[in-house]
Amino acid sequence: MEGGIGIFLLLIVLVVVIVGGIALYITGGGILATDKGEDSGHRPRHKRPHDPAQDHTHLVGTPEGDEALAARSERERS
């Protein structure tokens, strides 16, 4: 009789684990997510760069990049 009760309890535990796993899979883990109120899902908008070094990037080895480097070195010399 004790063996039958043990198997029955193992079956109940197995069903609970399977149902919990399916619930986590379906919700994408949303059940475990905690919302602390700090971040309401809003992502900050960043300003566009206004620094000339960030606005005008040139790849080294390209004709535009070589011209930009030459122009910059000429400006720095004068």
- Kindly state the percentage of residues in helix: 55-70%
Instruction: State the end-to-end distance.
Output: 98 Å
Strand content: under 5%
- Which parts are unreliable, with pLDDT below 50 for 5 consecutive residues or more? none
Largest beta sheet, briefly?
none
Number of H/I helices: 3
Q: What is the mean pLDDT?
A: 77
Q: Give the total of beta strands.
A: 0
Structural class: mainly alpha
Would you list the SSEs in sequence order as H and E? HHH
Overall body shape: rod-shaped
Radius of gyration computed on alpha carbons: 31 Å
Keywords, please?
78 residues; 3 helices; mainly alpha; single chain
Provide structural commentary:
With about 80 residues, the chain is mainly α. It has helices at about 1-25, 50-55, 65-75. The relative contact order is 0.05.
List the helices and strands and how they pair.
Layout: H1 2-27, H2 52-55, H3 63-77
Describe the structure in brief:
This protein has three helices and no strands. The chain has helices spanning 2-27, 52-55, 63-77.
